Amino acid sequence: MRYSKQPIDIPEQLALLKQRGMIVNNENAALRQFKEKLLRLIDAYPSVSLKQMGFPRDWRQQPLWL
Question: 48 with 10: CB under 8 angstroms?
Answer without folding.
Answer: no
